[in-house]
Design goal:
This protein is mostly helical. The chain contains six helices and no strands. The chain has one domain: Ferritin, CATH 1.20.1260. It holds the Pfam family Ferritin.
Amino acid sequence: MKKSGSSKASAQRMQHAPLATPTDLDARATRDVSGAMNAILADVFALYLKTKNFHWHMSGPNFRDYHLLLDEHGDQLFAMTDPIAERIRKIGGSTLRSIGHIARLQRVDDNDAEYVEPTDMLAELREDNKALAARLREAHEVCDERHDIATASLIEEWIDETERRTWFLFETMRRGDSSGH
């Protein structure tokens, strides 16, 4: 029969032990891909919250259409979070642990303004989604360099979804001219 003190010490050691997730990717690939994808995950969480913020604070004559559009976009962004985090874990990396961790890694600017014009909301989200697509491409390059085909494949789908959101935001803001402004 084991002493309770030794089982407690064993449990504490297990909490600090590295996770040995089996993968054929080398340690450098795990480190680089996990780093790129954690930054993407932080951006997706930040963009999700910004999208929901604008969804909740939308007003004006196009309220219903914009409100529903941003709700749909928020759902798409949130749906990305678990697959990103699980992919990081599948290759042996660790993922985001807190709001503070997200804040340290995110590259999407927050918008805490009391009031934002609806067209400014859409323009800001359009540019944020456009930037996310570019960052996803950068992460894809890391995956290509490290031979992580599975993560690259997922990223390709997310690029398409992100470009679609960018396109919808662009088209929603058009006023009959070809510039989108």
